[in-house]
Amino acid sequence: MRIGALSQRTGVSVRLLRYYEEQGLLQPVRRPSGYREYRADDVDTVHSIRRLLSAGLNTQTIAALLPCMVGSGESLAPGCAGLLPDLDRERERIDTAIADLLAARDVLDVVMAATEPPASTADGADECAVAPSA
Q1: How many CA atoms lie within 13 A of 74 on its CB side?
Q2: pLDDT tens track for 114-128
Q3: Distance between CA 120 and CA 117 in Å, rounded?
Q4: Smallest Cα–Cα separation from 57: which of 22, 85, 94?
Q5: I need a labelling partner for 107 at 20 to 30 A (CA). Which of 29, 38, 57, 113 fits?
Q6: Which of 104, 78, 79, 103 is nearest to 91 (CA)?
Q7: String of b and e for 99-126 (b: at least 16 CB within 10 Å)?
Q8: What fold is seen in the domain 3-113?
Q9: pTM, whole model, 2 decimals?
Q10: Domain range summary for the chain, segments of one domain joined by +
Q11: What integer is the mean pLDDT of 93-114?
């Protein structure tokens, strides 16, 4: 199947599929015309990539783990126990990131609690308004 069909079957944009190929996550066959030709099992591969990305793994880690994974999507699992140390390391990295975010939120809570409510001007607008960050 061509890249447009893979995009439709997986719900992943053509641009993102090309990125996955650049990262070594997908290896379509190249036709003499230069077109990419994907296999039916590439649909499962894309679902697996999406699942691992949603678990917080980066594409470099996924490229290393993906060949040893079995199943796809919800049923994705390591195909050998040798992957568990890598997955444990990624889990620890995520735990550290969560702890860092919680600590940042705690600091923000302290700052917010120490801040007096804003004074309103005659037109009802806050005297010191801060634009939200993007």
Answers
A1: 0
A2: 988 777 666 666 666
A3: 9
A4: 94
A5: 57
A6: 78
A7: eeeeeeeeeeeeeeeeeeeeeeeeeeee
A8: Multidrug-efflux Transporter Regulator; Chain: A; Domain 2 (1.10.1660)
A9: 0.71
A10: 3-113
A11: 95
